[in-house]
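Reply to dn_fold:

You asked what the input looked like. This is it:
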Amino acid sequence: MIRELNAQFGIEGELDFVEDESGLAVAKIDNAQGSATLCLQGAHLMSWQPRSQKTPVVWLSRDAKLAVGKSIRGGAPVCWPWFGAHATESAFPGHGFARTVPWRVIESGKGIDGETRLALRLVASDKTREQWPHACNLDLVITIGETLRMELITENTGSDDFVIGEALHTYFQIGDISEVSVSGLEGCEYWDKVGGSSLRKQNGEIRFSGETDRVYINTVSECVIRDEKLMRSIHVAKSGSLSTVVWTPWIDKANKMGDMGQPDGWREMLCVESANALENQVKVASGTRHTLIVEYRAVSL
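and this is what came back:
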């Protein structure tokens, strides 16, 4: 499979497919603007570092493991076709199945400014159809360069409408969680999942002093992570998304998770996720498509 991937989609000196020791296929991108890695299982972007930055922008736990059927700690997991727990089936996986099943490469190419483009499609199976009995295609198109662009495209190919929840659950590399802030969500309402799922309103920028798990609703705003330790800001611009999720586990939850990169990996990551969750779930009518787009860039302070 690796030989076939490289023959059909590899780009000499820029895009190469290799097999991880787990047996999973990984795409390695290294171009004039930046570098990245992506696991074909889950279409899971694992890392991204533009040439302008000394430190990766997308965080991957030092204890992250690749394993068949398992999600990877860090990177940018694809949550789909639901976000969080399934509404009625407790045995179904949290955040859907897209991040733990095979995807196939359907296109690769080079951009006019030196970026690399890679498109993947989820491979449906009897197991996925048991959980999601709707005719559809799910594609992820990733463009890697000085900026990182991700497009999650849901196409309803069946005769019935359906409703999806989704997120690009991106982990960002930061210097220290106690020294960052997030702006862009001032005045927005959010569901506080740490505070008993209560609905609150954001007052000022977000700062962190404990576990934070919030779903901001009805917002299309660009978010900015200001990182005083790494002396940079990370900009998160999106479209086709009405929810933004902000998450840090803090020490107690991180210690229970076991793969956050002990002892202090949790201090060096922050999730700002572009999503459609809770009341912002999306109805995709028969014969139509919905696209969630997010673009990330890092700017030195």
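The longest helix spans residues 2-9.
Hope that clears it up.
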